[in-house]
Amino acid sequence: MSDSMKLTALAVITVLFTFLFIGIGLDASNYEYFLSRRVPKVLAMIIASIAIAQSSLVFQTITHNRILTPSIMGFDGLYLLTQILVVVIFGSFSVLLLNPFVNFALSVAIMIGFSLLLFGFYFRSNSGQGNVITLLLLGVIFGQLFDNVSSFFMMLVDPNDFFTIQSSIFASFNNVNQELVYFCVIPLLIVSALLFKLAPVLDVFWLDNDNAISLGVDTQRVTKQVLILVAIMISLSTALVGPVMFFGLLVANLTKEFFHTYRHHTLLIASSLMAMSMLLSGQWIIENVFSFSTTLSVVINFVGGLYFLSLLVRQKIH
Asked: Which listed residue, of 27, 136, 266, 301, carries a Cα 20 to 30 Å from 71's Cα?
């Protein structure tokens, strides 16, 4: 099957489950109520799918590693720490928490500020000779620090504040932040357009750092640009549905296995369609077949964990 046919098949699956989510049960008496609830939910899943898929794909390209995702840089941990500190310092009734736009702007500003601080300090201290693996190790250390500080403060808050924080800890595709959905469309389109503009450079990046440098690519500049765009993407997806550990790993690797191409123009579209079809079909099955007896994030983490172990074993064998 050609790549164009695979793209068409994924697009058909995405449209089919979008229709099932929105269209089933609608009639003249209830369409206003159901559309007002279903459309933002489906749109949130689509935005989160595109953000997670594209950020994971380009992150693996610049790190040249198929088992890494942006979670290793501690972005998820920083987002959770931001939410917890807002509750601890300002209380659970603060406008910084209750107003979704203010909360989202604060979280994105802190994550991008952290990215600029980390990348600027690292690349300046290495005079342009830094190894991106060392940068990833710094991300792991900061991520662990964020998680530990978050756990410490969660032990101190009272039960009411803990209940408020709890909604930010676990991913939920059934209770998305609907007020942010339409606001997130514009930054998603801008970041996606910038990644598409960088796609030809990422094609060369695929050849490894030394080959990319010999072909005239400024790898340090491209790495910083991609990491900042990835930080924005992770902010969008985490603000809408919460942190999802293994979904990016699943989508990025399945895309590379199904589509035998190095061109990022194709891979970015393919990974987005793959993520949308998986997320929409999975959530629909959870709701209509399993009647919410489990959650999609649990299934994703279980399957993703097994797939992660299989990748480790296969890479060790090869």
From this structure: 266
